[in-house]
Here is the input.
Amino acid sequence: MPEVAVSCQQLLKVFDAGDQQVIALDHVDLEILQGELLMLVGPSGCGKTTLISVIAGILDQDAGVCELFGQNLAAMRSKDKLRFRAQHIGFVFQAFNLLPALTLTENVSVPLIINGVKRSIAERKAQEILAAVGLGKRMGNLPAQLSGGQQQRVAIARALVHSPKLIVCDEPTSALDHETGQTVMHLLKDVAMQQDRALVIVTHDARIFGFADRIAEMDDGRVINVRAATPNV
Here is the structure.
């Protein structure tokens, strides 16, 4: 039986909205296994992005416990949490969050440089993974010189370059055509299948559901069902 990569127990997250409070996560229980690709699906506003933000340590929950590979990020000091995230988590943001003044190679190198890798080695590894996502001829370009789909592939490359134990993706194929989306998903799936890693993807893209091992359905801040995915044929 695979070991647990992420364990969420009774997660509660509440946001203030004027004079009201919005319950974004309503006592969520969820486990993600090592070697697993799990997808989070459900209507917009149901809590998917909030959940992956808590899992990745970007947000702190208001109650409950979330452990990553046995570590409780919410209980860590800020500098320890930042170090853990830098070493072990790759996040693909829906808005990409690329640095506009840096080339693609430099953007993708950032996680490695943060972790103390020599710049020349970091840039070589960045170029290797940029080639793997089909951007080998654009490495010297700035993000503004790329299409939205190309920027998305840079964001994915940046999330993978430091070989994190957990990869968290928010709509990674939303700006990609079918063929490119399939190529990117094969790359992500290969990463997830490594025994000591896990991948969780928020998506509305039914074209990629078959890449998942399991699909967790959310609604109104709750995980209402977890099911095995139907594999691609």
